[in-house]
Amino acid sequence: MIAPASTKPLRCAIYTRKSVDEGLDQDMNSLTVQREAGEAYIKSQKGEGWLCLPDPYDDGGYSGGNMQRPGLQRLLVDIRLGGIDCVLVYKVDRLSRSLLDFAKLIECFDQHDVIFVSVTQPISTSTSLGRLTLGILISFAQFEREQISERTKDRMASARRKGRWVGGRPLLGYDVSREERALVVNELEAQQVRRMFELYLKERSLTRTVACLQEEGICLKRWVTRSGNSSGGGPINKNGLHRLLSNVAYVGKVCYEGETVEGAHEAIVTEEVFEAVQHQLKANDRNGGVRVRNKHDALLRGLLTCRHCGTAMTHTFSSKKSDKVYRYYVCQRAMKESWSVCPSKSVVAGEIEAFVVERIRGLGSDPALQEEVIDAFLSRQSKARKLCEKDLANMQKQYRKLQQEIQHAIERQMGAAEFSLLEDKRKVCELALQSISVRLERLQGNCLNRNGIIRALSLFHPVWEKLTTPERCDLLGLLIERIAYDGEAGEVEIIWKEEGIHALLENE
Question: What CDD domains does the record point to (predicted)?
């Protein structure tokens, strides 16, 4: 190895990596062996001016398949700051097992005139032959990594086909035996699971079953992670209950690629109970909620919210033996958690849709309603402008402060890394200033007066009568930001979109 002709020493950094963190607490571990080999190599080149840097660049417990490694990132920062002339590794795959990542690293080294050396392999990027050999070796390293990944997937697939548990979140009713890597029945939780199935067959409703489970204090599985932290244990909602009731693990089976096979664990519920629950779940399924809701042209879909809970109100329906359809908007929180948590619960769809449409129609001719809505609309306009002006003032203050910090950094000759961080903050601040300025300009330029709002609302009635139902849905979405329904007080609040008023005036 011949060092570059230079009067100054060749500053060498040793990078070490180990994929797993086992044994890192020992005095003599893989990282120590790698570093000692690198130090010995540098010592052998002492006559050529090689100097070992004291800073360790170690990554214990990190995969070579990506670059998200703290030690590697510190190494790259120091290279960009000009503090390293040569990087040594024990073997090529210690730096990276990804050909793409490796190419990026070598490109970075070249840009900063940094030599790369593998201690146990005759490789140096200072020669063309070394570069060729390096490319071949890293290709084999990536191939080996892909082979390991494929073998791991094959082993997991084989275990699944044999009905074995291969990892994931523990399931309510079972504990995980780390030694046997298997699911073991937790008798206390198993009773809760059987009770869950029993309640659903009795109530025949996810919502009512969730309410019963909450009353009885039955929650999701709580477990302790390998790091010793407690996880899970939250309340069961409708979606979680549906997943639990549909899980074939409770009848001692395992799903793999759409195929259900016999599991190696013990069942908690009988096949008869499980099948009865699946039959009831299918009976309650309306075969595509989105399609059904579209079928009935819910005018306020996506607009109506529950004022008490702050959640959306979903359009749904029920039908009687007479085939008559009864449409409702239902609070999502009440649907997911329990009917008792929301005072509004639901509202008849036809009634609230008619109320909203008539209120908009009335705004074109009723002076009292006009004044009420216009005052609220102009007040929101004013508040939005003032808030935007405040945001702009705060951001300008922050920008001036950053400019001062950058000036002080220049005067103190701050390091490149810290200076780069300040420059990044300044760029982000400039983008925020530009965004807020554009928003304020739009708010100031789009100001509507009372006459403009009245004229826009008067256009609603003639336009509305000519539209199809889907077009009416689009128009309401254009005019209204949201509708807040308070079932307890019997109040409906319409929050308008300023751009919708402008659109009506533009199409006048």
Answer: SR_ResInv
